[in-house]
Sequence to fold (197 residues):
Amino acid sequence: MIPDINLMPKLEKGETSSKLLYVLLGIVVLLGLVVLSWMYVSAKSNLSDLTSEQAELEEKRIKLEAELSALQTMNQGSLEESVAFVELVSYPVSPLIDETQGLLPENTYLREYEFGESSVTIKVDFETLNEVSTYVSRLENSPYFIDSQVGTIENFELDPAEEGESEEVKFNEVPRYSVEVMLMIDIAFVAVGGGIR
Fold:
C-alpha cells in the first residue's frame, strides 16, 4: 500500500468564520458594557438629583406640618376662647341697647357699642357738658347697670374748617362733646329678665 502523503497544508475555512464570530461577539459585549456604564452613570446622577429633591420636599413637608399644627392650635385656642366668651357673656343685649338709648337726653347721638364679659362701653355725642352729667346720673340710677365710668371726653366741631380756609372765630357755634362711658352690667338683673316691660 502506498501511503497518501499530501504535503500541502490543509486550509480550514471554519477558523476564519469562528474568528469573525469571536470579534463580533467581543464588539457586542463591548457595546453592551458601554451602554451599561452609560446607564449606570445617568442613573447615579438621577439618583443624586432625586435625593436632593427628596431632601427639599422633606424640609418643605416639615415646615408645612409645623404651620398646620400652629394654625390648628391657634384655631382651637380661638374657638375655645370664643366658646368660653359666649358662655360667660350669656345676657341679652337688646334691653341694654334700649336702656342706653332711652336714657339719652334730647339732641344726643349714640355712636358705638362694645360689649365685654360684664360691661358695655358706649360712645355718645352731646351738645353740652351738663347733658353728659345728666346722662351719667341717669345711667347710675338704672337697674341694668351697677356702675358707670366716664372714660374720655373730646370736643369736636360740627363743620370744621378745611385746610386753606381762613379760621374764623365762630361765636354762635358751641363745640360738641364725644364721650366714652363704660357701664358695668348687673348680670343678675338682666339674666332674670329684668328688662321685660
Summary: Residues 19-88 form one domain. The chain has four helices and four strands. The helical segments are 13-88, 94-102, 129-141, 187-191. The CA atoms of residues 123 and 180 lie 4 Å apart.
